[in-house]
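If it is no trouble, can you show me the amino acids of a protein and the tokens describing how it folds?
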Amino acid sequence: MIAALAVVIAAAAVTVTVLRTGQPSGPPAAASSSHPCLNGVPLSVITAPQVQAATQALADSWVATRPTVNGKCVTVTVDQENPSAAVQSLGVLPANTVWIPDSRFWADQLRAASPKLRSAVTISGSVGSSPLVVATAPSRAASIAAVAKTGWAGVLMGPAVVAVPDPLSTTEGALSALAVQSAIGSRPDSSAMLVGAFGRLASTAIEEDGPTGFEAMQNSPASAPVFVASEQDVVQANRGKKAPMAKAVYPDGPTPVLDFPVVRITLPNADLNVAAAQALFVSQLGSTSARMAYSDAGLRADPRLPLGPGENAIGAAQRPVTAASSPAATQVALASRLWVAAVKPSNLLAAIDVSGSMGDASGTALSKIALAAAAARTAMTIVPDSWTIGLWAFSAHDPPATDWTELTPLANVGSSRAQLAAAAATLPGRVGGNTGLYDTAWAAYQDVTRNYNPADVNVVALLTDGANVDPNGIDLPTLTSRLKAAYNPARPVRIVTIGIGAQADAGALQAISNATHGQSYLVLNPADIKSVLLQSIVANN
């Protein structure tokens, strides 16, 4: 999703590639007739790769009938382009064209990316559809089908390793990510939960190069990966084989569907003859011969109708599916940002106040520090393995010593998750002393700066319920002056501050965050500590 999802804004247990199979590329241009057409009406058609060959054949057959508009013959040029790339190229250099992407998702993205095209983009039906499925070797289909009974959420978020195509560049990946987003729904910590889920998906995302998943099924079925694909991909992979080497498994419930819309882009200054030629060609795409051609290419006429018999359905099931609803633009925008947060790791040092007041009641059955510890444990559970996290506790004690205690140093979560969770569990037992805020903020900033990773988002998350009380430490003007002098826009380290309750020094916390271009949060209800901590971590990715 970012070419998928980046249009709206941009390892691994399994790394494979799914490439379209059995799709002849066809000739580079479309018009073919024994009678040359001079000064005719040129019609541009852009298609997703999956339907280029069928569309090319239809265009050739139609042009052979010598269609005319106002006495001028029509010529057709059919080009294929990945839909995410087409959104970008059409947004920069809009053209009068008939466009067949693999999902109306892309028509929505084009409208969002290029407001000037909103009124120029119209959808005139669909050439066919193909539901997303889980592609697997036949020998593993029964075990995957058992998981599929839990629906798409169970498949993508459960213990089974199901790889997804890259949401940055494929519709299958984008719709998979949106299915996860829909399953998590709206809850206070949904963004953080989604980042965690996306992180796990990213670890198995299918890359652009390397052997294909279908090739692996052909050569090593027992060890071949299981991955999300379209039903059409499975059918095409099995073409010409005596027995299916790939099997389509259909998760229960609403299913993401590639719906191959017919999109007309007609600019306000379009030649009327071109607009008329568009209308004529679009009518051909709804003809009986067109339906047969796209069926032969492995598409359904409607998600509720099964594929035709014979070679058109090898490896697929003769069953209807219920199409999932199209995502709203706001869902896509949020998912796009959170996928970036998941695939761009954080180098995060969390520093949590354990001064005496953190042991006070929170208005719930738990103390403030107990809530903070639970929030930290949750964060350590859901963040991706690729992140780097460290955990400090801080309070000022007498006699003077450092105001902070390093519970775990900055380390890769994949190898330190258990230690992080265990350290977070010790926080309630450390309560005591005053709030040594300023010295801790400066020390934490220096620690992340020393351990700076240019590939990561480098952040200090500072959580406290009070104001600085440390007569032996630095004051606020000294702290903010040091932070501003140390801040390097080319190597940014930001401090995110979270104040808990009315006694937190909101002004000082805001000043600390401002000095490093970070964000500051004030939580008046301690019960919201977890959601705010998680959201603050995600928001700064």
